[in-house]
Amino acid sequence: MTMHSSIKGKLIAVIGDEDTCVGFLLGGIGEINKNRQPNFMVVDKNTSVSEIEETFKKFIRRDDIDIILISQNIAEMIRHVIDSHTNPVPAVLEIPSKDHPYDPTKDSILRRARGMFNPEEFR
Fold it and tell me: Which residues does UniProt call coiled coil (predicted)?
């Protein structure tokens, strides 16, 4: 009996600017799977929205990725795609970048969570 799938580690994917990706890669999250696909995407001023969307959709379909970290300013560019992803795995976490601070009012997960609770319950 093999327990390969339960032992095999899952990956964190990153979609962000160069500084964000390099920081996470230096932290050790970089991987290239057997199909030579990386688990990160560096977005710059020449990157098209369709490229970002396609990479995000590829990351969602991969069974080796459990968490997708995406810079919030980039998430805003593909908000409709992120909002349509409702499965808990992979989890999509929006993070700040060097030039764009985190804004909780834009975070799709936070908005969804807020909708599940009555604000009166927190008093």
Answer: none
